[in-house]
Amino acid sequence: MNSGTLVGSLIFAAVLVVVIAIVIQLMMLGWRRRAQRQEELIGNLPEVPIEVGAAITTLRGVYVGCTLGTETLGAEWTERVTAGDLGYRSKAVLSRYPEGILLERIRANPIWIPQDSIAEVRTERTMAGKVAARNGILAIRWRLPSGVEIETGFRAANRDEYDGWLEEAA
After folding, report:
1. Structural domain range at position 100
2. In Å, how far from its chain's centre is CA 36?
3. Is residue 25 in a domain?
4. Strand, helix or coil at 130?
5. CATH number of domain containing 122
6. Within a domain: residue 48?
7. Would 18 be classed as within a structural domain?
């Protein structure tokens, strides 16, 4: 390889690295801006109660994420909530109590869904960019104290246990 070709290759590689760095920075900026817009819209999540009754049923699996409800500012089911730590998938335990639903996530704050704010519990095949086989995602539609409806997705390790959750919601 002659020195002209080597210099051209090095310049091309340097430009490519700079372009990739700029694209990554723009993606991160977009994520932060979306999170700021959603934090204003969502407000504070409900506090986990100090005492609750005995757990009715429990599932182990993966917290898929939250999406804004379709009625919220014309948002789509793919409009992933990135505010706070709601945008990060993690292993989790989903427990149903008489007072509501508790979603305990690893390395993230728990999510408490009061019983009176739950609008619907159903299964979905897709949610927040995650695809599961045969309606493998348990979707919980609920209303936040701010009045905004969101959907919280959970994919259980054993999807056959969804039936109890769907029957209780009916």
Report:
1. 57-156
2. 16
3. no
4. strand
5. 2.30.29.30
6. no
7. no
Token look-up 């309606």 returns 135
Tokens encoding 151:
């959907």
Can you read off the two tokens belonging to residue 141? 């539609």
What H or E segment, with its residue span, contains residue 4?
Answer: helix 3-42
pLDDT one digit per residue (tens) for the chain, 170 residues = 677 788 889 999 999 999 999 999 999 998 888 888 888 788 888 888 888 888 888 899 999 888 886 554 444 556 778 787 887 888 999 999 989 999 999 988 899 999 999 988 888 876 766 666 666 888 889 998 888 888 888 888 877 777 777 765 54
Q: Which residues of 59-91 are buried (b: 16+ CB within 10 A; e: fewer)?
A: bebbbbbbbbbeebeebebebbbbbbebbebee
Q: Any idea how long the chain is? A: 170
The total domain count for the chain is: 1
pTM exceeds 0.70: yes
d(CA 99, CA 81): 25
Within-domain flag for 37: no
**Predicted local distance difference test score (pLDDT) of residue 25:** 96
Contacts for 72 with CB less than 8 Å, ≥ 6 apart: 41, 148, 149, 150
